Amino acid sequence: MPISVDKDGFHPSVIRIYAGQSVAWTNLDKVPHAATASDGSWDTGEIAPSKTQALQFFE
Fold first, then answer.
1. Domains and CATH numbers, the chain
2. What is the mean pLDDT of each run of 10 residues along the chain (59 residues)?
């Protein structure tokens, strides 16, 4: 599931995934960004401009 990140936020802002699926965040901005769960259970770490970080979810 691809998500783009820019100065205006995440696009799409809401997704639905199932156990075993991956999400890939691509930073389209000129500054680093990160995606973090509200409960802290996962974090992409800092994503540099023009780079992609993917996480696979098992629950």
1. 1-59 (2.60.40.420)
2. 95 96 98 96 97 96
* Angle 44-50-54 from CA coordinates, rounded to 5°: 30
Query: Residue 1 and residue 22: Cα distance in Å, rounded?
Result: 6
CB 27 within 8 A of CB 54: no
List of long-range contacts for 9-14, beta carbons under 8 Å, 24+ apart: 10/35
Number of H helices, E strands in the chain: 0, 4
